[in-house]
Specification:
This protein is of the alpha+beta class and about 210 residues long. It has nine helices and four strands; from the N terminus they run H-H-H-H-E-H-H-E-E-E-H-H-H. It has a four-stranded mixed sheet with strand order 2-1-3-4, with helices on one face. The longest helix is centred in the last third of the chain and has 13 residues. It binds FE2/S2 (inorganic) cluster (FES).
Length: about 210
């Protein structure tokens, strides 16, 4: 419905400036539009087309290719419940039916208060943790029906403040401080993530 706000146009300009060709910035710009409205509106796609110098059809082509972009309004919390084989075997479909009954909507629907949308989705890459779901792309693992109910209650009453509104991504945009840039590419100054460190082989003892 809406074009980018003045503030987001500034952010868009910053994003575009990082790429040798403006249209290469399309994916992060689509995230920006989705973060603004909770979905990617038609007007937003037209606006992005103007900003990067392509046709609206090209923006739509990119946007519609990726599952993570939604082109219609959804609830504040979009709950994607996996019913693929691994989750199905441990109750994924039953969890979906419970969610539908609890919220009074079918998969693909949104509650009247605009809070929740449920989707029946394919594998979300957490097959050992089923039945699982994502709420606004944040994982919830091994859910029983009562776990689901507690999650809904927490989202409703605000006690689950770890889940931001749909469209908000953790790493949509990087604002890298200049003093951090100096260390990039240097193993001495750029610490490795803990998971990577933990997988490094022990150095062999001398003479072994
Ligand atoms: S089958 Fe459900 S996460 Fe893979």
């Amino acid at each position: 419905m809406s074009r980018l706000t003045a503030q987001n146009q500034e952010v868009a300009a910053e994003i575009i400036s990082r790429y040798p060709r403006a249209k290469s910035a399309l994916i992060p710009l689509l995230h920006l539009a989705q973060e603004q409205d909770g979905y990617v509106a038609d007007d937003a796609m037209e606006h992005l087309a103007e900003l990067v110098g392509v046709t609206p059809a090209e923006v739509l082509g990119t946007c519609s290719f990726y599952e993570m972009f939604v082109r219609h309004p959804v609830g504040k919390y979009k709950i994607d419940i996996c019913t693929n084989i691994s989750c199905q075997l441990v109750g994924g479909e039953e969890l979906l039916h419970h969610a539908e009954e609890t919220l009074g909507i079918r998969a693909g629907g949104t509650t009247d208060d605009g809070l929740f949308t449920i989707e029946d989705v394919e594998c979300i890459a957490a097959c050992t943790e089923g039945p699982c779901l994502q709420v606004n792309y944040r994982y919830e693992y091994r859910l029983s029906n009562s776990d689901f109910d507690n999650m809904i209650e927490g989202l409703r009453d605000g006690s689950r403040d770890d889940v931001p509104p749909h469209g908000t991504l953790g790493l949509t945009r990087q604002h890298i401080p200049q003093d951090h840039l100096a260390g990039i590419g240097s193993p001495e100054t750029t610490p490795m993530p803990a998971w990577f460190e933990s997988r490094q082989p022990e150095p062999e003892a001398e003479g072994a």
